[in-house]
């Protein structure tokens, strides 16, 4: 989910925009890159589950941490290594959007 929507959308306080869908897709690509290996779950650590706990309520703070520092310390699964430069470049754009 887009960072703009994390807390406020549930309360109906944010207008849903196309940019929210695009950002959500970027987060899905990120999730897949770190969670899946070839045809199933990556059993070797699964960084987003173990280190960042993206399945909790405070996910906005975790995503901001990921955008600013954590993503540079983690490696995607081997099967998604070739996709990672593309995902990372889109995450750079998300980071710039929220820094503005």
Count of helix runs: 4
Instruction: Report the portion of residues in β strands.
Output: under 5%
Rg calculated over all Cα atoms:
14 Å
User: Which of globular, elongated, flat, extended, rod-shaped describes the shape?
Assistant: globular
Biggest sheet strand line-up: 1-2
Mean pLDDT score, rounded?
78
Q: What is the share of helical residues?
A: 40-55%
Low-confidence stretches: none
End-to-end separation in angstroms reads 19 Å
Spell the H/E element sequence. HEEHHH
Major sheet size, sense and barrel closure: 2 strands, antiparallel
Q: Indicate the structural class.
A: mainly alpha
Based on DSSP secondary structure assignment, what is the total number of beta strands? 2
How many structurally independent domains?
1
Structure description:
There is one protein chain. The protein has 100 residues and is mainly α. The protein has one domain. It is 48% helix and 4% strand. It has four helices and two strands; from the N terminus they run αββααα. The protein has a two-stranded antiparallel sheet. Strand 1 and strand 2 form a beta hairpin. Helix 1 crosses helix 4. The mean pLDDT is 78.
In short:
The protein is mainly α.
Chain-wise SSE layout:
Elements: H1 18-35, E1 36-37, E2 40-41, H2 47-50, H3 59-68, H4 84-99
Antiparallel strand pairs: 1-2
Helix pairs in contact: 1-4
């Amino acid at each position: 989910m887009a960072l703009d929507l994390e807390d406020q959308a549930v309360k109906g306080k944010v207008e849903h925009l196309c940019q929210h869908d695009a950002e959500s897709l970027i987060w899905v690509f990120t999730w897949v890159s770190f969670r899946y290996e070839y045809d199933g779950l990556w059993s070797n650590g699964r960084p987003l589950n173990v280190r960042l706990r993206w399945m909790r309520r405070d996910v906005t703070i975790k995503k901001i941490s990921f955008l600013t520092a954590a993503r540079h310390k983690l490696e995607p699964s081997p099967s998604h290594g070739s996709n990672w430069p593309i995902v990372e470049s889109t995450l750079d754009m998300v980071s710039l959007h929220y820094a503005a």
